[in-house]
C-alpha cells in the first residue's frame, strides 16, 4: 500500500533508517517519496534538511506539512495506524518484553556509537582510530551481553527474539548486528543473537531493507 504524500528521509547505512525500512516492508507499505540524506557529506546537519528536521538526524517522515523524527516513534506510529502485522503486541507484558529489547538497542547501544559521537571523540577529544574502535566494540559488547541474556531463554519459542512473530525487537536487532559486523566485532559469544539475525536475514522484508 502506498503512503500518499509521505516523504521518508533515509540513508542506506543508517541503522535507525534500516529499522524503519524493515517495518515498512513487514507491513507492505511504500512511502510516496524516499529522499536520501547523504550522511557522508554532512547533508543531515545542513539546510535544507536541518530546517525541517531540527535533530539533524535520519530517519524522519514528512507529511501534512510537518516532519517527525525518531525511528521508534515512527514505527510505533506505523504500528498504530497499520496494525497488520503487529510489531508491538497488544498484551501489555509481551509489549514490555519487546520494548525492553528494542530500547536496549536504541537507547543503550546505538546513541553511544552514532556517527556524530565517533566524530566528537576523534575530533574534539583527540582519540585515535584504535581508541575509537575500542570504544565502539566496548559498547556493542556491553549491550550484546544484555541482549543475549534477554533473547537466549526464548530460543525454543520460535525463530525470532520473542517467539514465532517478528516484532520491534527483531526490527531493531538486525540493523544493530549489521553495525557490529561492519566494525568487525567478534560475535562468537552471542549465539542466540546470531541465530535470530540469520533467520530474519532469510526473510524478504529484512533482506530488501538491508544496506548492501
Ligand atoms: N534515536 C534516533 C537516532 C537517529 C540517528 O542517530 N541517526 C543517525 C544514523 S543511524 C544519524 O543521522 N547520524 C548522523 C550524525 O551522527 O551526524 C532514532 O532512532 O531515530
UniProtKB/TrEMBL annotation:
Gene it is expressed from: maiA
Record-annotated GST N-terminal domain positions: 4-86
GO CC terms of this entry: cytoplasm
Native organism taxonomy: Bacteria, Pseudomonadati, Pseudomonadota, Alphaproteobacteria, Rhodospirillales
CDD domains reported in the protein's UniProt record: GST_C_Zeta (cd03191)
Keyword field: Isomerase
Gene Ontology MF annotations: glutathione transferase activity; maleylacetoacetate isomerase activity
Record Gene3D superfamilies: 1.20.1050.10, Glutaredoxin
PANTHER family for the chain: MALEYLACETOACETATE ISOMERASE
Domain GST C-terminal as annotated: residue spans: 91-212
Pfam families named in the record: GST_N_3
Originating organism: Thalassospira marina
GO aspect biological process, one term: L-phenylalanine catabolic process
InterPro entries, per the entry: Glutathione-S-Trfase_C-like, Glutathione-S-Trfase_C_sf, Glutathione_S-Trfase, Glutathione_S-Trfase_N, GST_Zeta, GST_Zeta_C, Thioredoxin-like_sf
Family membership noted in the UniProt record: Belongs to the GST superfamily. Zeta family.
Name of this chain's protein: Maleylacetoacetate isomerase
Amino acid at each position: 500500500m502506498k503512503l500518499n504524500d509521505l516523504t521518508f528521509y533515509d540513508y542506506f547505512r543508517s541503522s535507525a533508517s534500516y529499522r524503519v525500512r524493515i517495518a515498512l516492508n513487514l507491513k507492505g507499505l511504500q512511502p510516496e517519496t524516499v529522499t536520501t540524506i547523504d550522511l557522508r557529506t554532512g547533508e543531515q546537519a545542513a539546510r535544507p534538511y536541518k530546517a525541517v528536521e531540527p535533530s539533524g538526524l535520519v530517519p524522519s517522515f514528512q507529511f501534512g506539512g510537518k516532519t517527525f523524527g525518531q525511528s521508534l516513534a515512527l514505527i510505533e506510529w506505523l504500528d498504530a495506524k497499520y496494525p497488520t502485522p503487529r510489531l508491538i503486541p497488544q498484551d501489555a507484558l509481551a509489549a514490555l518484553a519487546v520494548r525492553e529489547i528494542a530500547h536496549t538497542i536504541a537507547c543503550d547501544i546505538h546513541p553511544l556509537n552514532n556517527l556524530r559521537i565517533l566524530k566528537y571523540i576523534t575530533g574534539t577529544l583527540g582519540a585515535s582510530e584504535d581508541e575509537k574502535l575500542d570504544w565502539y566494540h566496548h559498547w556493542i559488547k556491553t549491550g550484546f551481553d544484555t541482549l543475549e541474556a534477554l533473547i537466549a531463554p526464548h530460543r525454543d519459542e520460535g525463530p525470532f527474539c520473542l517467539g514465532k512473530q517478528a516484532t520491534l525487537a527483531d526490527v531493531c536487532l538486525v540493523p544493530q548486528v549489521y553495525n557490529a559486523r561492519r566494525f568487525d566485532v567478534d560475535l562468537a559469544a552471542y549465539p542466540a543473537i546470531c541465530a535470530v539475525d540469520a533467520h530474519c536475514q532469510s526473510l524478504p522484508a529484512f533482506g530488501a531493507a538491508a544496506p548492501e
